[in-house]
Amino acid sequence: KMAADTSVDILQKVLENEILQSAKVVEEHLDAEIQKLDQMDEDELECLKQRRLEALKKSQQQKQEWLSKGHGEYREIPSERDFFQEVKESKNVVCHFYRDTTFRCQIMDKHLTVLAKKHIETKFLKLNAEKSPFLCERLRIKVIPTLALIKDGKTQDYVVGFTDLGNTDDFTTETLEWRLGCADVINYSGNLMEPPFQSQKKYGTSFTKLDKKTIRGKIYDSDSDDD
């Protein structure tokens, strides 16, 4: 028991020391910042203030512009024609091709609703695949759900079914966010090298692209039939 107590004491001392060291680093950084500000004259301070105000104003204007173009919410668009107009307006677009009868589309909807509010730099849309045969043909959409990831009017990448999301219906919103970050279609602040999968060892980090040979005879397969 004494040995255990000793090791706990040692651990506690190590932790206390680490906390002290961290606090010291933060303190030194703050001191340096304060010193820098102290050495500035009024003109320089005013200039700094103006630059920060300008940056803030610019980011507010950008935000307003995005919101005016329908960013910030996950919306359904009625037709293929609307798709082309929406894509033309925005730099980054995520479009969910769905079908009413496919359960997994509802799972995708839930996560996209959250991400649309969080990433207003990107437009999040959904389009009924059965009402858009031309687009499904043109974009080679064979599995439902599929997300088309569009940058500058061009489809750069696809999230086909749940393969890239850990092959599970229980994937987290963070996992989908990471996958969209990998395609550079949202501003992702996490580590792209570490997918937040439930079991990294099992799924690894490689993306599985859709293999045409696995597609059955229908126009497109419901991913939920593939269990």
TrEMBL record:
It is found in: Cytoplasm, Cytoskeleton, Microtubule organizing center, Centrosome; Midbody; Nucleus. One of its GO terms (cellular component) is centrosome. Keywords: Cytoplasm, Cytoskeleton, Nucleus, Phosphoprotein. The keyword Nucleus applies. Residues 80-163 form the Thioredoxin domain. It comes from the Eukaryota. The keyword Magnesium does not apply. InterPro entries: Thioredoxin-like_sf (IPR036249), Thioredoxin_domain (IPR013766). SUPFAM superfamilies: Thioredoxin-like (SSF52833). Pfam families: Thioredoxin. Its main location: cytoplasm. Coiled coil: none annotated. Forms ternary complexes with the chaperonin TCP1 complex, spanning the cylindrical chaperonin cavity and contacting at least 2 subunits. Significantly diminishes the chaperonin TCP1 complex ATPase activity, thus negatively impacts protein folding, including that of actin or tubulin. This is Thioredoxin domain-containing protein 9. It comes from Oreocharis arfaki. The lineage of its organism: Eukaryota, Metazoa, Chordata, Craniata, Vertebrata.
